[in-house]
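Now for today's protein:

——
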Amino acid sequence: MKKLATILTMSCICLFGSLQTHASTTHKVKTGETYYKIASTYGVSVHELMNSNGASSTLIYPGQSIKIPSTITSSEKDLVARLVEAEAKGESYAGKVAVATVILNRVDSSLFPNTITGVIYQNKQFTPVQNGKINESASADSKRAVSEALAYRGQGSGSLYFYNPDKTTNRWLRSKQVTVVIGNHVFAK
């Protein structure tokens, strides 16, 4: 089960590509920090962070300056977290990361809009948009799940869809290749 959670977490990070950005910043490495911890803090992928710094190894040193690449806006991150909260409330943390990853994967896919807002508000895609639950606040867990999904961007199985098999009869959706099952959700591509 722990291996499945790790695989799922890794699957949850392929979403944020062509997004609004902020200016790049620099981070001074503190004792005990890793590329993963820094990436999670700033909401970027480890891969992007290493590429921006020309790193071929994950080894970093206290006092080293790390360039932080541009990332999504805080309002986009909040929007994803609110969708995660509404779609995966009551699900495991891994399930929340997986839902966030689907959003990011859709942004990167040519099959969907290329912005967070476009993906989330695409007609008839997410029930919380239709019933207004998207407007409720996100929990700390959902916010953390989005940061983790961003940190592992590009390292997952490419899930573009998720559904609860007890709540959908959509044959088209059920015909998609299953990538992982977490809690009450089936993830597919």
Notes: Strands lie at 25-28, 65-68, 161-163, 178-182, 185-188. The radius of gyration is 16 Å. The longest helix spans residues 93-108.
